[in-house]
UniProtKB/TrEMBL annotation:
Pfam families membership: CMAS (PF02353)
Gene3D superfamilies hit by this protein: Vaccinia Virus protein VP39
GO MF terms held by the record: methyltransferase activity
PANTHER family (UniProt xref): CYCLOPROPANE-FATTY-ACYL-PHOSPHOLIPID SYNTHASE
InterPro entries: CFA/CMAS (IPR050723), CMAS (IPR003333), SAM-dependent_MTases_sf (IPR029063)
Record organism: Pseudolycoriella hygida
Protein name: Cyclopropane-fatty-acyl-phospholipid synthase
Coiled-coil annotated residue ranges, if any: none
Keywords, in A-Z order: Lipid metabolism, Methyltransferase, S-adenosyl-L-methionine, Transferase
Segment forming the signal sequence: none
């Protein structure tokens, strides 16, 4: 809901969701804000689930590389995808967003991030077990990548709140583990990996070493942008 309010949506707008996952945000946008949504994902399983979820709505789900997008949108949203783009690709990613966003459009990114100059040890664990080739952006990388492309209208930090989110995920995982453990070839190892993942990140967010950002970008709206909380 907060993402949608920050996007300042109006019925009939065309919205691009890059990295749409299982289609939850696409569905929410179409149902509650009456906009036309295009969601793209590289996962064929995710695309199939999203298509089923959004059946009958003004939503088009594509199993497509975002770099192949070549059309215009009033709004762009990226929630939990920038972590999979990679620092070497940030500039080309933002150039594509600039090319596809209307001149009076709004672009919102939600991403985990950090302000460390060195690679945290936790990222080595993540790369091996959780998010292969993933990388959370440093707070200095985004401004550099958008130079001469976008104006930063708002940068909202939810880092302290994400501690609570991760603990809720951890508790749900532990509570439901007896029901799902039979699905895994090596259940004990799987359980330890994911419990460790949740708890090291609870620690990182609680210590304020990791952050969760919502960043609003425009091409420079005349009169400025008024954000919401």
């Amino acid at each position: 809901e907060l993402i949608c309010r920050k996007l300042k949506l109006k019925p009939g707008m065309r919205v691009l969701d890059i990295g749409c996952g299982w289609g939850g945000l696409c569905e929410f946008l179409a149902v509650n804000y009456k906009v036309d949504v295009v969601g793209v994902t590289l996962s064929s399983e995710g695309a199939a689930a999203a298509k089923e979820r959004c059946k009958g709505l003004s939503v088009e789900i594509r199993c497509q590389d975002y770099r192949e997008i070549n059309e215009g949108f009033d709004r762009i949203v990226v929630a939990g995808f920038l972590e999979h783009v990679g620092p070497k690709n940030y500039r080309s990613f933002f150039k594509l967003a600039h090319r596809t966003l209307s001149d009076d459009g709004i672009f919102l990114i939600q991403t985990i991030g950090h302000d460390n100059d060195c690679v945290p040890q936790s990222e080595l664990f993540l790369d091996k077990y959780i998010f292969r080739n993933g990388a959370a952006p440093n707070h200095k990388e985004i401004p550099k990548a958008i130079e001469n492309l976008f104006c930063i209208e708002d940068w909202h930090n939810f880092g302290a709140d994400y501690d609570l989110t991760l603990m809720a995920w951890h508790d749900n995982f532990v509570k439901n583990w007896p029901k799902i453990s039979h699905n895994y070839e090596n259940p004990n190892a799987f359980f330890r990996v994911w419990k460790y993942y949740f708890l090291i990140f609870v620690g990182a967010f609680r210590a304020r070493k990791a952050q969760l950002w919502q960043i609003v970008l425009t091409k420079g709206l005349p009169g400025g942008y008024i954000s919401v909380r």
